[in-house]
Specification:
66 residues, mainly alpha
Amino acid sequence: MKEKVYLINREIFYVLSFGSLILTCLELVKPRLVLAWLNINLWLAVWLASGIIMLAIKPGRATAKK
């Protein structure tokens, strides 16, 4: 189950990363094109949360025994 959640989250992270690259290129080509339609802060917050979750549930990670 943990591996499936990790794979889904990894794909979401990749899609958000690639989307950020595309949106950045569009913003460089035509300024204010993306910012007029999309809240970039929310996009980056979801991207950051996805990355943190991906690191937190990475399968095969050694855990400290107490």
